[in-house]
Amino acid sequence: MTEVTEEECNVRHAIITAGTKGLGKKVTERLLAKGVSVTATYRSDRDKALELLEEFPSQKESIQLLQADVTNTSDLERVVKEAISRFGRVDYLINNAGPYIFERKKLMDYSTEEWEAMVRGNLDAVFHLMKQTVPHMREQRFGRIINYGFQGAGEASGWIYRSAFAAAKVGLVSLTKTIAYEEAEFGITSNMICPGKILEEWKEASIEDGKRVKDEETPIGRPGTGEDIARTIEFLCHEDSDMITGTIYEVTGGLDVIHRHL
C-alpha cells in the first residue's frame, strides 16, 4: 500500500463509477484537467480504461482504475476503501454507472432477475456508495454527490418499455433530494443530472464537435455531447455551488420543455 502524502490529502478526490468510457469518461477528463485526482471504475473493458493513462501521462499518479460491478455490494465497498487508502479522502461521488436494458419490453415481459438488476445498479448502488463515502465527507465538512437520472425523471412520468430503469431512477430522485436535506449541515450537496438525447457517438464528444452538426429535433439545434454533462457536473462540484442542492438538472437542449424523447 502506498503511503498517502500530505499533498495528496489536500487535493480534491472524485470517485466516478463507469468513469472510463462514455459520459463518465468526459467527467473524468474534465476533473483531471482541473487538478482533481480520480478513482474511476470500469466493469469489463480494461483496455478502454487504460487509454486514460495514455491520454494523461503526466497525471498517472492522480488516476486509479478499478474494476467493479455496481450491482455487487462488495465491489462498491472495495472501491471506496481503495480510494481512501490511495488518496486519503473523497470529495466528489459521481454515480455515473447504471445498467440499462436496450430491448424495448413491457413490465410483464421483464424477468425477476432483470428487474432486480435494474434496481440494484441504479438505486441500491447509490445507497451503498453513500453509506461508504458520506462519513468521510462529514469529517471533511465538504462533499458533492452527483446522481444521474433521465429526461423527465423529476416529474415521475411513466416511460413505456423502460419501466424497471425508470422506477429505479425516479426512486433515486427522491433519494437525491432527501440526502441533500439530511447532509446539508455537513457541507454536503446532492444533485441529479438528467441527460437528454445523447447518442452513443456523442458521449465522448466535445461541445465544439456538436456545434458542427445540425440537429433538427433539439430546440438549440445541435446534438448533446458528453462535455455538456461534464461541464455541468464540474459546476455543481465547485465549492461555491453550495447553494445548489436537491436539484434535478435537465441537460437536454430544450427537449424537456417540449416532450420526452422515447
Automatic annotation (TrEMBL):
UniProt keywords, alphabetically: Oxidoreductase
CDD domains recorded: SDR_c
GO molecular function, one term: oxidoreductase activity
DNA repair recorded as keyword: no
Alphabetical list of InterPro entries matching this protein: NAD(P)-bd_dom_sf, SDR, SDR_fam
Recorded family membership: Belongs to the short-chain dehydrogenases/reductases (SDR) family.
Official protein name in the record: SDR family oxidoreductase
